């Protein structure tokens, strides 16, 4: 059955973030009613055409339980990615958790780089220029709005 397992044993508060262009960090909390020996395993699939991959670098809590994962060399596609966390315990069946996520929505962007400021005191104006940060997905120029906060000393 799809929802086999003890109620309250599936993970909670699952979230992922992509940073530094190609690193993805996912975290979760153990199900509130999960047995103490429950171990969780994360799988993700970038698109329906790709193979599901298990986490290679788990983040463990003080009891050695997998509570997160770091993925390297992540690229963002246009399809929703599929995430599934299942669990195992000697005592009971553990419910799985799954979710579809648009990866571009969880990318944490780096700040702009190569910022230059050239001011002309005679004209009483300044030219501020920068390069937009690198991102890993398409629609590169539609994603950015900048706000400049100028404070006078």
TrEMBL record:
Residue ranges occupied by any Type I cytokine receptor cytokine-binding domain in the UniProt entry: 13-106
Keyword entries, A-Z: Glycoprotein, Membrane, Receptor, Signal, Transmembrane, Transmembrane helix
Main location: membrane
Membrane topology: Single-pass type I membrane protein
GO molecular function list: cytokine receptor activity
Subcellular localization(s) per the UniProt record: Membrane
Top-rank lineage group of the source organism: Eukaryota
Family matches, as PANTHER family: CYTOKINE RECEPTOR, INTERLEUKIN 5 RECEPTOR SUBUNIT ALPHA
Name this protein carries in UniProt: CSF2R factor
Organism in which the protein naturally occurs: Pardalotus punctatus
């Amino acid at each position: 059955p799809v929802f086999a397992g003890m109620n309250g044993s599936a993970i909670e508060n699952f979230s992922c973030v992509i940073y530094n262009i190609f690193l993805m960090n996912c975290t979760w909390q153990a199900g509130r009613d999960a047995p103490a020996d429950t171990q969780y395993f994360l799988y993700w699939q970038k698109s329906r055409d790709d193979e599901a991959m298990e986490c290679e670098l788990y983040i463990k809590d003080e009891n050695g339980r997998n509570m997160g994962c770091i993925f390297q060399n992540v690229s963002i596609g246009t399809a929703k990615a599929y995430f599934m966390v299942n669990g195992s315990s000697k005592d009971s069946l553990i419910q799985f958790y799954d979710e579809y996520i648009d990866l571009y929505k969880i990318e944490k962007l780096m700040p702009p780089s190569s910022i230059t400021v050239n001011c002309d005191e005679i004209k009483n104006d300044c030219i501020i220029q920068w390069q937009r940060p690198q991102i890993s997905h398409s629609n590169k120029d539609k994603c950015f709005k900048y706000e400049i906060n100028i404070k006078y000393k």
